[in-house]
TrEMBL record, chain A:
This is ABC transporter permease. InterPro entries: MetI-like, MetI-like_sf. It comes from Streptomyces atratus. It is a multi-pass membrane protein. One of its GO terms (cellular component) is plasma membrane.
Automatic annotation (TrEMBL), chain B:
CDD domains: ABC_PotA_N (cd03300). Transmembrane segments: none annotated. It catalyses: ATP + H2O + polyamine-[polyamine-binding protein]Side 1 = ADP + phosphate + polyamineSide 2 + [polyamine-binding protein]Side 1. SMART domains: AAA. Residues 11-239 form the ABC transporter domain. This is Spermidine/putrescine import ATP-binding protein PotA. The keyword Cell membrane applies. Part of the ABC transporter complex PotABCD involved in spermidine/putrescine import. Responsible for energy coupling to the transport system. GO terms for cellular component: ATP-binding cassette (ABC) transporter complex. Keywords: ATP-binding, Cell membrane, Membrane, Nucleotide-binding, Translocase, Transport. It comes from Streptomyces atratus.
C-alpha cells in the first residue's frame, strides 16, 4: 500500500534523470571534438585569418603595415614569381609520378608477395623517418656531389649527356640541377606514397584475383581490370600526400638546387624571413593554397573513387 | 545418366593428389564426373573436397596426377585457359563493378563486344533483372549468390564448380537456393561439381555424391544408394544417423545370422560389405527410421521373422512430425529410433521397457575392423 502511494511522485524524478542522461549522451560527440577544434582554431584558422589580412596590407617594416585592401599584391606576386609557381608544380608533379612508379611495385610486393617479411619491409619503408629530414637531404648532397660515384657512373653510361640535352642536368653536374631537386623530393616523399598504396592493396580480397583468373583474365588483365581499380583510393591519397607537401617544399630546392631551380616555397620563405615583405609572402602562400586546392578538387572529382573509400 | 556418359565431356581425375609440406590434403584419387551430371563432393571441413575443386579450377596445382576434360589434358593449363568457371564460397564479386559488368566480365575477357543481350538473359534466369545497375554491396547475400552463379554460367563453361556457395546463407534461403540451383542445372544442362559439408544439401541436389574423408573418397554413388548401402562406418554415420551394433557371425547363407546383445539378428548377404566367415566380427547397421518400437508387454504382437532387440528408453524428444527415442540395450548403449507421430503412444516414455524390431532386409553389414564412431562428431559440428 505505502509503495503505491509513494510511486507517483518518484516517477518525474526518474524521468528528469533519464532526460539529463540523454542530453549528456547527445553532447558526448561535441566534447570529443572540442580538443581538435580548439587546436585547429588556434593553430590553423587564426593564423590563416591573420595571413589573409597581412596579404592585403601595405606599408614597410619601419612605418608599419596596415590593411588597405591592396589586392594588387596578389597580381604582382603572380607576375613576378610565376616561373617559380610553374616550376613547383612541375617538380612536385614529376616527383609524385616517380613516387607512384617506384612505390606501386613495392607496395604490391609488400601486400601480396612479402609473406612473413611483410612487417620487416614495412619497417624498412618507415626507417628513414628515424633520421631528420634535413640530414637525409644533406646526405643526398654528398651522394650527388660532383665527382662522386653517382655522377661518375651516369657520366660513363652517357646518361648525363641525355639528361643535359633534356635540360634536367647541366654538363657534368647533377647537383644544383632540376634532376637533383626532383630526386630529393621523390626520395623524401616516397614513404607517403607507399603506405596508403599498401593499405589499399592489402585490403583487396585475394579471392578477387582468383575470380578474375577463373573468368579468363590473364594476370596482366587482372591487374588492369581488378587490382588497379580497387587500389585507386590508395593511388589518390598517396599522390595527394606526395604532391601537396612537395609543391610547397623548399628544403630540397634550397639544398640540392640552385637559383635556377627555386620553387615557390623558397620564395615564400625568403620573402618572409629575409626580404621581410610580409604582404607578398602571404599573398604567395594564398595563391599556392588556392592552386593546390583547385587541382586536388579536380583530381578527386575525376578519379571517381568516392564510393570505394 | 548413362546416355550422357557417351558424349565425352567427362571430367576425369587420375591419381590426383595435393601435398602441402608434409600434410597430404588430398591423397591420390581417381574420379570421373559424367558430363551433364550434378555431382557433389561431400565431407567435413579439411577433408580435401575444396582442394580437389580448386585443382579442377586450376587455382591449386596438383602435386601428382592428371586432370582431363572431355579427353583433353588440362592439368597444366592456367585457370584463365580452362573451360570451367567457379562460384566462390564468398562469391568474390568485383566491388568496383556493377552487376552487369560483374556478369559480363568473362565475356569481355574473351573479346565479346555485344554483351547486353546475354547479360540481360542471364540476369533474367537468376531473376535479378532489376538489379543490373546496382553494385554488389547493395545486394543481399542471396542475391549476391545468384549474381555469382550468373557470372559463372554466362560463359557456358563445360563444368561449373561450386565451392560451398550456400554456406553463408541462412537455412530457409539455403533450401530455396538449393532448388533454384537444381532448376538452373536442369535448364542449362552443364556439369555441376558442388562442394559442401551439408549432407542434406548434397542429397537433395546431386545425382551422384562422393563422400570424402581424410583426403580420400570413401564412397561414391547416388544419394539413395549411399544412404541405404553405406560401405564404411564413416559414410553410415556422416550421412544421416546409423545404429551400429557389433556382433559375431553365427551362420551365413542367403541371410547372415549374427549374435549380438544376447539375441540373434539377420541381414541379407548382399547387403554386407564385410567378409562373412563364421565366427568373424561384423557391424550391423540399421537406420533409426526403419525401426519400430513396441512396449515390452506387447512384444507378442510383433510379427515373426523381424529382427528384435530389447531395451529401455532413456530419452525421448518430440520434434513435431516424429519422436526421437534413445534406447539403451545390451546391443548398444544409445540406439536411435525415429517414430512418425501417427498415433499418440502414451506408454513410450523414458524408463519404459521396449522391444525394437525391424525388417531384416533393412539391415546392412559393415567390416568390424573400422572405427565405429567415424563420422559421428563431424556431423554434429556441421549441424
Amino acid at each position: 500500500m505505502t509503495v503505491t502511494k509513494e510511486a507517483p511522485p518518484a516517477a518525474p524524478v526518474t524521468e528528469l534523470k533519464v532526460r539529463k542522461a540523454s542530453t549528456r549522451k547527445r553532447l558526448v560527440p561535441y566534447w570529443l571534438l572540442l580538443p581538435g577544434i580548439l587546436w585547429l582554431v588556434v593553430f590553423f584558422a587564426l593564423p590563416l585569418v591573420y595571413q589573409a589580412s597581412t596579404s592585403v596590407q601595405t606599408g614597410s617594416l619601419e612605418k608599419g603595415f596596415e590593411v588597405t585592401w591592396h589586392f594588387q599584391t596578389y597580381w604582382d606576386a603572380l607576375k613576378d614569381y610565376y616561373p617559380q609557381f610553374i616550376r613547383s608544380l612541375l617538380y612536385a608533379g614529376t616527383a609524385t609520378l616517380l613516387c607512384l612508379l617506384l612505390g606501386y611495385p613495392l607496395a604490391y610486393l609488400i601486400a601480396f608477395k612479402a609473406g612473413r617479411w611483410r612487417n620487416v619491409v614495412l619497417v624498412l619503408v618507415i626507417a628513414p623517418f628515424f633520421t631528420s629530414f634535413l640530414i637525409r637531404t644533406l646526405a643526398w648532397k654528398t651522394i650527388l656531389a660532383d665527382g662522386g660515384a653517382v655522377v661518375d657512373v651516369l657520366n660513363t653510361l652517357h646518361i648525363l649527356d641525355v639528361t643535359s640535352w633534356l635540360g634536367w642536368t647541366e654538363s657534368n653536374r647533377v647537383l644544383a640541377t632540376p634532376m637533383a631537386v626532383v630526386c630529393g623530393l621523390t626520395y623524401n616523399f616516397l614513404p607517403f606514397m607507399i603506405l596508403p598504396l599498401y593499405t589499399s592493396l592489402e585490403r583487396i580480397d585475394g579471392r578477387l584475383h582468383e575470380a578474375a583468373g577463373d573468368l579468363y583474365a590473364t594476370p596482366a588483365t587482372t591487374f588492369r581490370k581488378v587490382t588497379f581499380p580497387l587500389s585507386m583510393p590508395g593511388v589518390v591519397s598517396g599522390t595527394l600526400l606526395t604532391f601537396i607537401p612537395a609543391s610547397g617544399d623548399y628544403v630540397n630546392a634550397e639544398l640540392l638546387g640552385s637559383t635556377d631551380t627555386k620553387m615557390v616555397g623558397s620564395v615564400i620563405q625568403t620573402q618572409f624571413l629575409r626580404v621581410l615583405d610580409y604582404p607578398t609572402a602571404a599573398a604567395l602562400s594564398f595563391i599556392l593554397m588556392a592552386v593546390v586546392l583547385i587541382m586536388v578538387t579536380v583530381y578527386i572529382r575525376r578519379s571517381g573513387t568516392e564510393d570505394l573509400v | 545418366m548413362t546416355q550422357q556418359q557417351t558424349e565425352g565431356g567427362d571430367v576425369r581425375l587420375t591419381g590426383i593428389s595435393k601435398t602441402y609440406g608434409s600434410f597430404k590434403a588430398v591423397k591420390p584419387l581417381d574420379l570421373t564426373v559424367p558430363q551433364g551430371s550434378f555431382f557433389a563432393l561431400l565431407g567435413a571441413s579439411g577433408c580435401g573436397k575444396t582442394t580437389t575443386l580448386r585443382m579442377i579450377a586450376g587455382l591449386e596445382e596438383a602435386t601428382t596426377g592428371t586432370i582431363s576434360l572431355g579427353g583433353r589434358d588440362i592439368t597444366d593449363l592456367p585457370p584463365y585457359k580452362r573451360p570451367v568457371n567457379t562460384v566462390f564460397q564468398s562469391y568474390a564479386l568485383f566491388p568496383h563493378l556493377d552487376i552487369t559488368e560483374n556478369v559480363a566480365f568473362g565475356l569481355r575477357r574473351r573479346g565479346i563486344k555485344s554483351v547486353k543481350k546475354q547479360v540481360d538473359d542471364m540476369l533474367e534466369l537468376v531473376q535479378l533483372g532489376d538489379f543490373a545497375k546496382r553494385k554488389p554491396h547493395q545486394l543481399s547475400g542471396g542475391q549476391q549468390q545468384r549474381v555469382a552463379v550468373a557470372r559463372a554460367l554466362i560463359n557456358h563453361p563445360q563444368v561449373l564448380l561450386l565451392d560451398e556457395p550456400l554456406g553463408a546463407l541462412d537455412l530457409k534461403l539455403r533450401r530455396q537456393m538449393q532448388l533454384e540451383l537444381k532448376r538452373i542445372q536442369t535448364e542449362v544442362g552443364i556439369t555441376f561439381i558442388h562442394v559442401t559439408h551439408d549432407q542434406e544439401e548434397a542429397m537433395t541436389m546431386a545425382d551422384t555424391v562422393a563422400v570424402m574423408n581424410g583426403g580420400r573418397v570413401e564412397q561414391l554413388g547416388a544419394p539413395a544408394d549411399l544412404y541405404e548401402n553405406p560401405k564404411t562406418t564413416f559414410v553410415a554415420n556422416f550421412l544421416g544417423t546409423s545404429n551400429l551394433i557389433e556382433g559375431e557371425i553365427v551362420s551365413a547363407g542367403t541371410d547372415i545370422v549374427v549374435a549380438a546383445g544376447g539375441g540373434k539378428l539377420r541381414l541379407p548377404t548382399e547387403r554386407c560389405s564385410a567378409p562373412t566367415a563364421n565366427g568373424g566380427k561384423l557391424l550391423l547397421g540399421v537406420r533409426p527410421e526403419k525401426i519400430s518400437l513396441a512396449h515390452a508387454d506387447d512384444a507378442d504382437a510383433i510379427a515373426d521373422g523381424r529382427n528384435r532387440v530389447t531395451g529401455r528408453i532413456v530419452d525421448s524428444s518430440f520434434i513435431g512430425v516424429s519422436t526421437q527415442y534413445v534406447v539403451e540395450s545390451p546391443a548398444g548403449k544409445a540406439l536411435q529410433v525415429y517414430e512418425q507421430n501417427v498415433e499418440r503412444r502414451a506408454g513410450l516414455r523414458a524408463g519404459a521397457e521396449v522391444v525394437l524390431h525391424w525388417n531384416p532386409a533393412h539391415t546392412f553389414g559393415l567390416d568390424a575392423a573400422q572405427d565405429i564412431d567415424a563420422g559421428v562428431e563431424t556431423v554434429e559440428d556441421a549441424a
